[in-house]
Amino acid sequence: MSDIELIGSQKSLSKTLQPELVEELTTLNLGPTHPATHGIFQNILQMDGEIIVSGEQTVGYIHRAFEKIAERRPFYQITTLTDRMNYCSSPINNFGWLMTVEKLLGIEVPKRAQYIRVIMMELARITDHLVCNGILGVDSGSFSGFLYLMQKREEVYEIYEEMCGARLTTNMGRVGGMERDLSGTAIAKINAFLKTLPPVLREFENLFNRNRIFMDRTINVGAITAERALAYGFTGPNLRAAGVDYDVRVMNPYSSYEDFDFSIPVGKSGDTYDRFMVRGEEMWQSIKIIEQAMNNLPEGPYYADAPEYYLPPKDDVYTKMEALIYHFKIVMGEIDAPAGEVYHAVEGGNGELGFYLISDGGRAPYRLHFRRPSFIYYQAYPEMCVGGTLSDAIMIMSSLNVIAGELDA
Amino acid sequence: MVDPPAGHSGAGFFATSFDQVIGLARSYSLWPLPFATSCCGIEFMATMGAHYDISRFGSERPSFSPRQSDLLMVMGTIAKKMGPVVKQVYLQMAEPRWVIAVGACASSGGIFDTYSVLQGIDRIVPVDVYVPGCPPRPEQILDGLMEIQHLAQTESLRRRNGEEYQQLLASYNIQ
Amino acid sequence: MLTNQEVAQHIAGAFEGDVYDFEQPYDLLTFTTTREQIIPLLTHLKDHQQYQISFLTDLTGVHYPHLTGKEFAVVYHVHSLIHNFRVRIKVFLSKEDLHIPTASDVYPCANWMERETFDFYGILFDGHPKLIRILNIEEMDYHPMRKEYPLEDATRQDKIDPLFGR
Q1: Subunits with at least 3 CB pairs below 8 A relative to chain C?
Q2: A39, A407 in Cβ contact below 8 A?
């Protein structure tokens, strides 16, 4: 096995208790096809009996060349690509990209649109954590918790459908604001969701938070210290579980997040239980943010006054000449962006999702790079698994919330 | 409830042809192998959930073991790196086996016409039903499943040993 | 509260002559340095007592085929979490001499980011523990993100109809 690197070796119980046993490491392929849910990436584990000694990863099984595609597409068509990166929370990716473009073009998005974006992003964050915590439950053996949470996800899908027409890959928002205002149905559905989610979350927490079996399976499993986490580029709930309160919404506020009052849950030891609890608490904080946004929703336009970039209203297009020309230029993709380079980051479901955009003045980016949190923190996975058993490795993987679309892009 | 197939019945017995009974039994107990790679996999999770329950169609047990499943549901983009894995999983399935390509990426490469994406899994395995969409709604996935059920009901028992099927497999280099 | 001006002056003082092209596009301090000084620079910023710019946010590459002698750029985004201060550092490399020391000793998270940059552009990172392709298949013999290669697969047999294309 000369091509497998041994990261650390662990004194195994068999060596100390029965030294006459021949020691041989087994190679186990935790292969690309996982039992659904997590996505496709491969881990070749070297195991000493049940204990993992080292691991080696292969990724790229779903490499779809987003960065190369982005060099071909006009700016508003790239929103559909960003949907498919972290597909559990598409609106966050969409708005992150749109904010990058707005930063490049120097467009100021009106307050109402910013509040609507915040509501959609927090709903997306809730759905991402619903899936992650539900799947953590499934991997520890209990399927029912996941079914309750998927039902809540269906309700959020209905809200997305009201806002943009699609359930999962939303393509929400336009350069300069939103494509449509919050309709009466959307507001009613959001309010209904805010009432029906807390009891379900409480029921889920009753099932899991102080559950003896769950705690035994998750406490001290896959712990990582704050220094190692920062060295490995962790961001998001995984870093906050290790004790560092870095949240892009607070440190570099965007889209009016500074108007909202919420706290950042922080864990202590960075193990699986802390990650689970941090995500659970973040859902409560997201509910708080949505309530504040719904109560203080400002009046006003839901898109910026930027006719070169935002499609003019249809009755203007049919009657006024300038509107017709703008409409034509935008649809044909002949809007020209200024040359420059910009980096913008948002707090995705998994951490700091960054967009590094270099524009040379044309209709498509010259270079677009996605700073994908899953890709960066997945490097730490073998180190977190060493010394644990195979079942621990499964729990660690699902608690890290690695989304394959974001991993490979 | 399901209508019984055409046959003779009497006191305590029912006689019909093997084709129909076996087709009926197979079609209402298709065990899927969810080969979920990306966004369509999340829609499959929604289909598996309580709202669009797939288990009412007989797919109660999604098994991840190819030997024990009937239906390979490929959901999501298949990159060229993943192609051999799909083929390997397909080869390990036992006859009768069906394949659904769920989503635009599995059917034809979808929006990813790039150097790294396989333009449809029918380049490497024979596909029975294509479900377009990006991602398809759970109702569409269930519709695809119902098409497979129809195929399973009307399939001849000798199809898998016949000349045409063997030639189909040979065209994909599958023995 | 760190300002771009203050940090730029400090860096220009500490690394005289090897750092140039200071600018701040969209308020992010950006400068260029040489291949020899990049690792000392990153280490200096990381170990600096006051600045503590110790988080590597991103590492990527860019291809500029029209700039002869500086065709490839490796771009580092680093971040000081204590002071909320970001810096972008660029290193330009020529096509004939396409290698740069690895940052994975300073920042372990640079490991995969450098493999990805190698996979896409062919930039060699000296001293990297395992510099092989990460996202593409191992047998691929070209570096796809370079501007001369097309997006589509050149060897495909469908969607190539001469009249209707796709």
Answers
A1: A, B
A2: yes
Q: Give this complex's ipTM.
A: 0.93
Q: How would residue A20 be classed by pLDDT, with cut points 50, 70 and 90?
A: low
- Taking the C-alpha atoms of residue B70 and residue B48, their distance in angstroms, rounded to an integer, is 17
Q: Which helix (H) or strand (E) holds A88?
A: none
Residues facing residue C61 across a β-bridge: C74
Contact A231 C108 (CB under 8 A): yes
Closest chain A C-alpha to B25 CA, distance in angstroms: 26
Contact A104 C62 (CB under 8 A): no
Instruction: Respond yes or no on whether the N-terminal peptide bond of residue C144 is cis (omega within 30° of 0).
Output: no
Residue A80 CA from chain centroid, whole number: 16
Taking the C-alpha atoms of residue A70 and residue A1, their distance in angstroms, rounded to an integer, is 39
Question: Could you tell me which residues of chain A have a Cβ less than 8 Å from any Cβ in chain C?
Answer: 5, 59-60, 63, 65, 67-69, 71-72, 103-104, 230-233, 244, 246, 251-252, 340-343, 345, 352, 354, 356, 358, 367, 369, 371, 375-379, 408
Query: Could you say which of C25, C54, C144 has the minimum Cβ distance to residue A65?
Result: C144
Mean pLDDT value across chain A: 88
Give per-residue pLDDT as tens, B66-99: 999 989 999 999 999 889 999 999 999 998 899 9
Q: Are B79 and A61 in contact (CB under 8 A)?
A: yes
Q: Determine the Cα–Cα distance for residues A327 and A104; give it in Å rounded to an integer.
A: 21
Distance separating alpha carbons of residues C162 and A7, to the nearest angstrom:
53
Identify the chains in contact with B, defined as 3+ C-beta pairs within 8 A.
Answer: A, C
Strand partners, C59: C76
Q: Give the residue from chain C lying closest to B122, CA to CA.
A: C158
Beta-strand ranges (E) seen in A290-365 are: 340-347, 352-359
Binary contact (B51, A151; C-beta < 8 A): yes
Burial of C118 (0-12, 13-18, 19+ CB in 10 A): buried
pLDDT digits (tens, 9 = 90+) for A167-196: 999 999 999 899 889 999 999 999 999 999
Q: Which of C26, C57, C62 sits opposite A103 (nearest CB)?
A: C26
Predicted TM-score (pTM) of the model is 0.92
B116 touches chain C (CB under 8 A): yes
Query: How far is residue A327's CA from residue A335's CA, in Å, rounded to a whole number?
Result: 10
Nearest-10 Cα torsion for A310, A315, A316, A320: 140
Question: Largest Cα–Cα distance of chain B, in whole Å?
Answer: 65
Residue type, A207: L
pLDDT digit string, tens, across residues C92-149: 999 998 999 999 999 999 999 999 999 999 999 999 999 999 999 888 889 999 999 9
∠ CA B2-B4-B8, nearest 5°, is 170
Asked whether the beta carbons of residue A356 and residue C75 sit closer than 8 angstroms, the reply is yes
Q: Is the pLDDT of residue A19 over 60?
A: no
A399: nearest Cα among A168, A209, A237, A211: A237
- CB contacts, 8 Å: C30 with chain A: 341
* Neighboring chain B residues of A33 at a CB cutoff of 8 Å: 35, 64, 85, 89
CB atoms A65 and B89 under 8 Å: no
Tokens 């992003």 sit at which residue? Answer: A121
Q: Residue B4 and residue B11: Cα distance in Å, rounded?
A: 16
The DSSP bridge pattern shows strands B71-75 and B98-102 to be parallel
C85-88 contacts at long range (C-beta below 8 A, 24 or more positions apart)? C85/C2, C85/C7, C85/C51, C85/C53, C86/A343, C86/C28, C86/C29, C86/C57, C87/C7, C87/C28, C87/C29, C87/C30, C87/C31, C87/C45, C87/C53, C88/A343, C88/C28, C88/C29, C88/C30, C88/C31
A1: confidence class by pLDDT, cuts 50, 70, 90: very low
